[in-house]
Amino acid sequence: MISSIKYTTPSLSCSAFSTRSRKLSVPTRPHFYTLPVIQNAQQNPETESSISSQRPLYISSTKSFTFLANPRRRVTECQAYEAERSPPIEINIELPHEQAQMEAAQKLKIGLYFATWWALNVVFNIYNKKVLNAFPYPWLTSTLSLAAGSLMMLISWATRIAEAPKVDLNFWKALLPVAVAHTIGHVAATVSMSKVAVSFTHIIKSGEPAFSVLVSSLMLGESFPMPVYLSLIPIIGGCALAAVTELNFNMTGFMGAMVSNLAFVFRNIFSKKGMKGMSVSGMNYYACLSMMSLLILTPFAIAVEGPKIWAAGWQTAVSQIGPNFVWWVVAQSVFYHLYNQVSYMSLDQISPLTFSIGNTMKRICVIVSSILIFHNPVQPINALGAAIAILGTFLYSQAKQ
User: Fold this and answer.
1) Which tens digit of pLDDT belongs to each residue from 273-287?
2) What's this model's pTM, rounded to 2 decimal places?
3) Which of 20, 60, 103, 243 has its CA 20 to 30 A from that of 183?
């Protein structure tokens, strides 16, 4: 008679499998033996040896594991255990060609930042000089530059083109001295360019590292390696040589560039001290800096020049230049913000050393382009002084690191 076979859920209780003999007895005729009943382990949750049907089973030993003819002989137990369900270990292995592609993409990104930064700066200096030649009011010109940048960023935040920064009162307190120094430096540079050639202003502004070392040594008590001090010799000598041989030398323009250097040095010092721990991107940081500088500059611009002078000068400029003068004002205002914004964005991606080198190369581009566009007369000795000053700036950026 054929015994009945029972089936239940796939969960196994391995103690049901048992035999009592090592050897298989071959019957003389076909026999059917009763299969062990597989009980559902989930029906008795209180049993400690119950095995979950939702986890895989691994059989630890299959030795002498078979169905024998005589079920009353020696018992051989089958032991099983639950598989460990720990999460897999993720290992990220970057292949050499993938790493090379990432490095190439990063270099391309930095190159685009630099090219954009230099191009925008050159365009700003050209239009700024055109505006100042026709409208010699640097306080209003500086105010319009800050106002244009502030308006652009407010629109970007309102339209969600750029994410608005999350800042508090402590951020604005730390930003205040930075904004004061930035305002002074911006106005002083604009005053300088209203009196002298763009190339001369940037030659003098290439001496900013000398002011940085001087202020840091006297006021902050910092000491620098000897190569840093030696690099100041060509900077100071080159700037002096260029100033002495400048055909269109003007004391107001010269002092404006010098004050701008000093102000920007203090801006960098205040920025390093007060902005530590402030997680604001370069683009938003400069936007907030422009807005605070605008609030600081506006009352001083009104007091120094005033609306009456601006109205008269505006009418004169429009009558002489025509409608293009309005475009010049808009262009110099917009490009001033754009080139500064890109420079702060590039600072997020590169080291200070690379940024200093980029700033030096930027001045070379501005000097050469302004000479070509405005046809400023340059003597060979004047060009030599500019080259020596810029070389010293490059050596300073190398020695500083």
Assistant:
1) 766 666 777 788 889
2) 0.70
3) 243
